[in-house]
Amino acid sequence: MTTDRNDLNMGMRCVKYMIFVINFMFLLTAILIVTVGSAIGTIFGDFEYFIDSHFFSPAHLMVAIGIIMIFVSIFGCFGAIKESTAMINIYGVLLAIVFILEVAAAISAFALQGQVKEMVRRTLNESMASYNDNANVQQSVDFMQRVLECCGVDSYEDWTFFFKNSPNATEGTNSFVVPESCCPPSTLKESCIPYEYGCMDRLQWVVAQSAALIATGAITVSFVQILGSVCAFMLARTIRRTKSLRAARRWQLQQSLGIMTKPHDPSYTQMEKSEKNPDSEMYLPNSPSVN
């Protein structure tokens, strides 16, 4: 009996440790998701004038999913400590909901990849057209050209259509007028040599790779989430079975020790034999003799 009880306790401890390990993995995954989502959101924020607002949604959704996963992991650990099958089942349902959110983030990121090229070309042309009229746009365009080391949409020649008679103009090679951000810092003091490549391909690559990273990361983590949900339901079933076996062993122990499971009825008293109620089997002196 003691051996069975020790086996049950060991089994329950194994279940708890397994839930703790799974939640620790989910916690690390949640931190990774929040980090990736925040990083991509920051990259998009640096180029916000060239990226439509709905492109920020997958990154924000990834951050929200990571925060939700952190609370779900804490909830799962608390359920394991309490040995509550209801809490573990709720934990599995929450993981399934997180799985759906991750699939939605992956689908939206994959769908946005097909819109990147058209969006980047449109926003670049719009930004270059308002370069001289909007200081914020001018700052964003200069930042993009310096960071990506590019100039114009397809080449530095594109500035010919947008940058005539500007006080910020710098005359480059072949008498092309370009912003100072088109020139490497080492050539500003001499004759400006604009960057050879346009910003179209480079900015498109940054946005497309960021969307692909969100999509692949969400898909990868979603498979881990659905496996975690299945494991949670299996662990809840194991906890329920272990608790039932523990209760059965406790009942058997009580029976073996002679403990009554039903309450004793004090109103019941054994009827004592008296002279008014003689036993019919009792022989009395005045009874007729049997010869």
Secondary structure elements and pairings:
Blueprint: H1 2-46, H2 57-82, H3 85-113, H4 116-129, H5 135-148, E1 169-171, E2 177-179, H6 199-256
Antiparallel strand pairs: 1-2
Protein name: Tetraspanin
Family: Belongs to the tetraspanin (TM4SF) family.
Pfam family, one: Tetraspanin
Weakly predicted, low-confidence segments: 268-284
Q: How many domains, in number, for the residues?
A: 2
CATH topology call of the largest domain: Cd81 Antigen, Extracellular Domain, Chain: A
Number of contiguous helices: 6
Descriptive account of the structure:
There is one protein chain. It is rod-shaped and about 105 Å long. The two termini are 63 Å apart. 64% of the residues lie in helices and 2% in strands. It has six helices and two strands; from the N terminus they run αααααββα. A two-stranded antiparallel ribbon has the order 1-2. The chain has two domains: 7-82; 112-185 and 192-257, Cd81 Antigen, Extracellular Domain, Chain: A (Orthogonal Bundle). β1 (169-171) and β2 form a beta hairpin. With 291 residues, it is an all-alpha fold. It has helices at residues 2-46, 57-82, 85-113, 116-129, 135-148, 199-256, and strands at residues 169-171, 177-179. One of its GO terms (cellular component) is plasma membrane. It comes from Aedes aegypti (Yellowfever mosquito). It is found in: Membrane. Residues 260-291 are annotated as: Disordered.
